[in-house]
Amino acid sequence: MDYGVTIFFTERSIGPAELAVAAEERGFESLWVAEHSHIPTSRATPFPGGGGLPEMYYEVMDPFVTLAAAAAATTSLRVGTGICLVAQRDPIQTAKSVASLDQVSGGRFSFGVGGGWNAEEAASHGTTDFKGRWKLMRERIEAMKEIWTKTEAEYHGELVDFDPLYAWPKPVQKPHPPIHVAGVHPHGPKRAVRYGDGWVPLNPGKVLAEQVADFHRMCGDAGREPLPVSLFAAPAKASSLARCRDAGVSRAIFALPPAPRDEVLPVLDRYVDLRDEIGGRDGA
């Protein structure tokens, strides 16, 4: 099992380059960052976590900018979106951002994607059919794959449609950076099998092992090898983390506070101790 960390970078948090270097020095495999373009002041959509919405949700920096800084300061650390709100983004421009970051990082980018939870935020970007955002996300990802892999790319869907175009750069990773699709079981893993390269389960609780096994059955039914499972907000308890490993989780991603370095680095060190307590990759 690999180990990564995730954070909401803000103007008051530790910087992306400093955290990336610290994570790489401590042997973490990856760094993942969240995305929200804004939060409407209406606050009509309840926060899934319950209670008030933490400030980091409307203070978070652009993920492609912070990950570029993180990649430039490191040599082996993978950098990823966790998650990119594809239904709120133009697919042609996002395809360029993804490919550019994959180039800048030397092929170390992972594309975590999801549908988001805030209907008003999505509506500000023109996604007024919030329930239909999953189809929009799928078509935009399919369209981006065409751009990444074709000299002359075109896509004609119900929601995304463009005639042949040229667009560079192309990603370093072939055919494109791995796409990790976030979503609850069973629809999340179904989407991951259909157009992704990994699954990010949401709130699986005690049924994680059953969900991972079901996901891998879906992969087999679709003629695909078992795809990796990345668990965000991995439990900070050795026994719970070991159960995640035994359940088939490929990557445990620990959450860091959006705080200055003096608060973040001690938390990072505690995660190192926890990781070492149950063993590194593959339990070694």
General description of the model:
The protein is an alpha/beta fold. The chain has a single domain (2-283), classed as TIM Barrel (Alpha-Beta Barrel), CATH 3.20.20. 39% of the residues lie in helices and 18% in strands. The protein has helices at residues 16-25, 56-59, 63-72, 91-104, 119-124, 133-149, 187-195, 208-221, 238-247, 261-278; strands spanning 2-7, 30-33, 78-85, 109-114, 153-156, 161-165, 179-183, 198-201, 230-232, 251-255. Helix 1 packs parallel to helix 10, helix 3 (63-72) packs parallel to helix 4 (91-104) and helix 9 packs across helix 10 (261-278). The longest helix has 18 residues, at 261-278. The relative contact order is 0.16.
Order of helices and strands: EHEHHEHEHHEEEHEHEHEH
Based on CA inertia axes, which overall geometry fits? globular
* Class by SSE composition: alpha/beta
Task: For the record, give the distance between the C-alpha atoms at the N and C termini, rounded to a whole number.
Answer: 9 Å
Assigned CATH superfamily? Luciferase-like domain
Instruction: Supply the CATH class.
Output: Alpha Beta
Which quaternary structure do these chains form? single chain
> Which segments are poorly predicted (pLDDT under 50) over 5 or more consecutive residues?
none
CATH structural fold name: TIM Barrel
Output the radius of gyration: 18 Å
Helix content: 25-40%
Question: DSSP helix count?
Answer: 10
Number of strands: 10
Number of domains: 1
- Name the average pLDDT: 96
Give me the side-by-side strand order of the main sheet.
Answer: 8-7-4-3-2-1-10-9
* Largest beta-sheet details: 8 strands, parallel
- CATH architecture title: Alpha-Beta Barrel
Strand content: 15-25%
